[in-house]
């Protein structure tokens, strides 16, 4: 019986994958918080999604260190969530406090953030908590607090912003001013327009001029600190 000839197939060379130890340590730190929060359930919503935020929005993304090729792969593999749900939860955790989440619910907060984003004309930026208790949404001609309206009413108010001639501001200062105006009860119907470097406003209540001026100054100040 002839002896089997030794295989001539060459062994594949090993690939030396270098991982930055600092990034690996940071990834492990956030993952430990994430896993602990997962075990605590809904009460740890804020901590869970702030950790996810820190992993996927780090530069470079930390999920790569964990062996995930994309944020979507990380969401599916670790959190068992779709990208849409995960991004929604990240946004709520970024701008709301645990008290807000318990008081209003995730769906309401997400709808309100969508309204404020649409009014500002661009995605909300930064990590500053929004004072949701001060936010008022126009419903049937009245500015209503969040605990007095439904998600559908908030979505309808958002749709009205995109249905007419409402011009979306594009500069950082216009977006910041728009968000500051939207957060003030007497100013929820104020329209902000931007053209050729100038801002103009419509539907400013005469009785709320002081609130209007303070909101404009506050919004402009936030834009300068970004």
Descriptive key words:
two-stranded antiparallel sheet; mainly alpha; two-stranded antiparallel ribbon; 226 residues; 9 helices; 52% helix; 2 domains
In short:
By secondary structure, this protein is mainly α.
Shape: globular
Main sheet attributes: strand count, strand direction, barrel closure? 2 strands, antiparallel
The helix tally amounts to: 9
Alpha carbon gap, first and last residue: 80 Å
- The structural domain count equals 2
The count of DSSP E runs of length 2 or more, i.e. the number of strands, is: 4
Q: What's the helical proportion of residues?
A: 40-55%
Class by alpha and beta content: mainly alpha
**Arrangement of strands in the largest sheet:** 1-2
Mean pLDDT across every amino acid position: 85
Give the SSE order as H and E letters: HHHHHHEEHHEEH
Task: Describe the fold and architecture.
It is globular and about 60 Å long. The protein starts with 20 loop residues before the first helix and ends with a helix. It folds into two domains: 21-95, no CATH class; 98-225, no CATH class. A hairpin with a 2-residue loop joins β3 and β4 (198-202). Mean pLDDT is 85; it is low at 12-17. It has nine helices and four strands; from the N terminus they run ααααααββααββα. A two-stranded antiparallel sheet has the order 1-2. The chain has a two-stranded antiparallel sheet with strand order 3-4. It has helices at 21-40, 45-56, 71-79, 83-95, 98-104, 106-120, 151-163, 172-182, 209-225; strands at residues 137-139, 142-144, 191-195, 198-202. With 226 residues, the chain is mainly α.
């Amino acid at each position: 019986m002839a002896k089997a000839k030794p295989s001539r197939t060459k062994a594949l060379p090993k690939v030396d994958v270098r991982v930055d130890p600092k990034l690996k340590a940071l990834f492990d730190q956030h993952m430990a918080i994430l896993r602990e929060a997962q075990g605590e359930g809904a009460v740890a919503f804020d901590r869970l999604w702030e950790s996810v935020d820190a992993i996927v929005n780090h530069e470079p993304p930390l999920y790569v260190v964990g062996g995930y090729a994309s944020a979507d792969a990380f969401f599916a593999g670790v959190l068992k969530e779709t990208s849409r749900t995960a991004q929604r939860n990240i946004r709520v955790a970024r701008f709301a406090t645990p008290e807000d989440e318990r008081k209003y619910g995730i769906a309401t907060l997400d709808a309100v953030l969508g309204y404020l984003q649409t009014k500002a004309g661009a995605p909300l930026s930064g990590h500053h908590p929004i004072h949701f208790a001060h936010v008022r949404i126009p419903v049937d001609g009245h500015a209503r607090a969040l605990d007095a309206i439904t998600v559908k009413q908030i979505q309808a108010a958002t749709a009205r912003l995109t249905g007419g001639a409402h011009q979306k501001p594009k500069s950082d200062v216009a977006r910041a001013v728009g968000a500051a105006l939207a957060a003030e009860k007497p100013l929820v119907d104020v329209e902000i327009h931007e053209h050729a470097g100038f801002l103009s406003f419509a539907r400013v209540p005469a009785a709320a001029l002081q609130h209007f001026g303070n909101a404009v100054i506050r919004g402009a100040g936030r834009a300068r600190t970004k």
